[in-house]
Amino acid sequence: xxxxxxxxxxxxxxxxxxxxxxxxxxxxxxxxxxxxxxxxxxxxxxxxxxxxxxxxxxxxxxxxxxxxxxxxxxxxxxxxxxxxxxxxxxxxxx
Length: 94
What we know:
Blueprint: H1 8-19, E1 27-30, H2 46-49, H3 51-59, E2 65-68, E3 79-81, E4 84-88
Parallel strand pairs: 1-2, 2-4
Antiparallel strand pairs: 3-4
């Protein structure tokens, strides 16, 4: 028994397809994204920091909510990509 890295798009899609018609809502919790770049004012560009999450949401069909945390930037409002809402907690915020 061990840890196996898999293609998240392929496996998310596989399980969402398997659940289709059996659930009311699909939610994925992931820990990815890109480290946020900061402007000279110290503000983080939230969309750029969540680029990997936005790509994931755009490629996985049937995903309703994507909750992520790697980018360390919060989303004051959900980001909508297609029919998927992306939410991210901020650094040291739970």
